[in-house]
Design brief:
119 residues, 6-stranded mixed β-sheet, 0% helix, mainly beta
Length: 119
C-alpha cells in the first residue's frame, strides 16, 4: 500500500506554531483513517492524532490534546497537523500512517519530517 509522506518540518522557537502536512500518494485512495505519529531519539514512536478521511472524526493522545489539531482537506487530499505552543520536548521526526480504524491498528508509515523546537 502506498505511503503518505510528511512535509513541513523545520526549526522553530519554543512557544511557536507549525503546520505539518501528509499528502495522499495517489487518487482515489482507499484509506479509512490517517494518523500522525512522532519519534524522538531514543524514544518509542508515539501516536498523536488520527482523523477519518470521509467523516473527519478525530482522536487525540492526551499529551497533545488542546495544543495540536488534525484536519483533512478533501480538495487537496491532505491531512494536516497544526501544532501550537511548541516545546523543546516536541522535537522529533513526525510521520503519518494509515489504518482501517480511528483508534489503533496504524501501519504503513510514510517518510517523516524533522521538527526541532529550540528553547
Amino acid at each position: 500500500q502506498a505511503q503518505w509522506d510528511a512535509t513541513g518540518g523545520q526549526l522553530v522557537q519554543a512557544g511557536g506554531s507549525l503546520t505539518l502536512s501528509c499528502a495522499a500518494p495517489r487518487r482515489p485512495f482507499n484509506v479509512f483513517a490517517v494518523g500522525w505519529f512522532r519519534q524522538a531519539p531514543g524514544k518509542e514512536r508515539e501516536f498523536l492524532a488520527g482523523v477519518t478521511t470521509v467523516v473527519g472524526a478525530t482522536h487525540y493522545a492526551d499529551s497533545v490534546k488542546g495544543r495540536f489539531t488534525i484536519s483533512r482537506d478533501h480538495a487537496k487530499d491532505t491531512v494536516s497537523l497544526q501544532m501550537n505552543s511548541l516545546k523543546p520536548d516536541d522535537t522529533a521526526v513526525y510521520s503519518c500512517a494509515t489504518s482501517n480504524l480511528l483508534q489503533g491498528n496504524y501501519g504503513n508509515w510514510g517518510q517523516g519530517t524533522q521538527v526541532t523546537v529550540s528553547s
